[in-house]
Amino acid sequence: MLESPLPHLHLVTTSDVPLHRQIYKTLRQAIISQKLQHGTKLPATRAIATTYGISRNTVLAAFDDLIAEGFLEAKVGAGTFVAHRATMQTRVTAQQLSQRGIALANTAVTIPRERILAAFRHGIGDLSLFPWDIWTRHYSRAVKQTSNYGYPDPAGLPALRQAIATHIASTRAVHCNAEQIIITSGSQQAIVLAAQLLLEPNDLVWHENPGYIGARGALLTAGAQIVPVPVDANGLVVAIGQQLAPTARLAYVTPSHQYPTSVTMSHERRLQLLHWANTANAWILEDDYDSEYRYDQRPLESLQSLDTNGRVIYIGTLSKVLFPALRLGYMIVPNNLAAAFAAARALHDRGSSLLEQTTLTTFIQERHFARHIRRTQKHYLERQYVLRENLAKHIPNLEVQGLEAGMHLAAWLPAGYNDTHTSSIAAQHHLEVMPISAYSQTPLARGGFLLGYAAVPPNAIRDAVKTLAQIIKTNTQ
């Protein structure tokens, strides 16, 4: 297929919009309007850079953004093409969907990946460490109980809610009773429910920047106006949030292990955030997505445990600790909102499978859950040590954060390096190196990577770091 000439790029060097974003917007619009048809091969980035007298890295950054959003696809040895999905999706959203539907269709989501697990995929543990024989035995027992074949309580199985309340009271110092717990299909559904029940259209919402894309999408589709609030070494910068939007209706935070930078919110910041929420009559969504794993000390007390005014809604997930296909999470809401959240859950999907809920209940009650956490924590700490030791050896100019907790760490590049481009190159070498800039709504001072280690054996970590070091050396800056 012959290369297609690009739409005319009118680049304004004096504009506040970076050149790579100007290129990105021009090409994106050309794809949406179908001036560039799916399957079209684009000119080489070097040729574009020469034609317009700009840096090739500028063109690469624009292409990488379009690849990340599904508008372009790179084929090793063949070039860069307009992706088929991009044109087809745009045609459907423009002609058949409501405004809310268009917002949903264009919201960034994480698509499940079917290919072989690669370093450094995050958000998943080592499934070979899971006690499948014990789980299967509990599941078989649940199958034999005829009570598990009717409609479930939309708020969740009472015994499971009590088991979770008991567990998190000791591990996270969460104050609640079983009636405050709503079982959900993972933490994502909990965020969606909270956004739908607590927000009016155009309400202002604080969102960590960089921050979790799934939460931002759920809030946007509920009609919220996102206010990006920066994160520093102590977590969300509350003072800046108060300057930008003092009357915001809600703040979404990951205080125990910030996603994706891996920092922990300081005690002082937690108190500042709670004081603001109480004064502004605002809500706080505390997403405690991987707090079970804490390596330097006993897990920190939750933000919810410090809340004396009922402003925090606590969200937890079981998928990362157990296995992603389980699709069970939970949220803890104030007593006076429990009935409303249960009703909303019923409208969504009538509740989670009683078979899985019953299995998980006995799995927790008989202490298998706690033993699994202790066992995997030992393995994950070893793998984290191997990762940081090899990063220090082979890529010493990376600044590593997040050693205290979780299943991934953040590795920051020196200023001037392009994390998005490096991520694209790494993918061609079967490495999943997520660029931190992809999680940010505003330009960052420097790029970095989100590196998962829990699911990667030590030898594979060593090999992957060597490969990443070579990629950074030859393809970045």
Question: In brief, what are we looking at here?
Answer:
The protein is an alpha/beta fold.
Architecture overview:
This protein is an alpha/beta fold. The protein folds into three domains: 19-105, Arc Repressor Mutant, subunit A (Orthogonal Bundle), CATH 1.10.10; 132-366, Type I PLP-dependent aspartate aminotransferase-like (Major domain) (Aspartate Aminotransferase, domain 2, 3-Layer(aba) Sandwich); 371-475, Aspartate Aminotransferase, domain 1, CATH 3.90.1150. The longest helix has 27 residues, at 368-394. A hairpin with a 3-residue loop joins strand 1 (72-75) and strand 2. The protein contains 16 helices and 14 strands. Helix 6 packs across helix 13 (354-365), helix 8 runs parallel beside helix 9 (213-221) and helix 14 runs parallel beside helix 16.
Give me some keywords for this one.
3 domains, alpha/beta, 16 helices, 4-stranded antiparallel beta sheet, 477 residues, Aspartate Aminotransferase, domain 1, 13% strand, Aspartate Aminotransferase, domain 2, Arc Repressor Mutant, subunit A
Number of strands: 14
Query: Structural class of the helix and strand makeup?
Result: alpha/beta
Return the string of H and E elements. Answer: HHHEEHHHHEHEHEEHEHEEEHHHEEHEEH
Distance between the termini: 31 Å
* Highest CATH level, the class of the largest domain: Alpha Beta
Number of helices: 16
Main sheet strand line-up = 3-10-9-8-7-4-5-6
The name of the CATH architecture of the largest domain is: 3-Layer(aba) Sandwich
Which oligomeric form is depicted?
A: single chain
**Relevant CATH superfamily of the largest domain:** Type I PLP-dependent aspartate aminotransferase-like (Major domain)
Total number of domains: 3
Largest sheet: 8 strands, mixed
What is the helix fraction of residues, given as a range? 40-55%
Mean pLDDT: 87
Low-pLDDT segments: none
Q: What proportion of the residues form beta strands (DSSP E)? A: 5-15%
Shape: globular
Radius of gyration: 23 Å
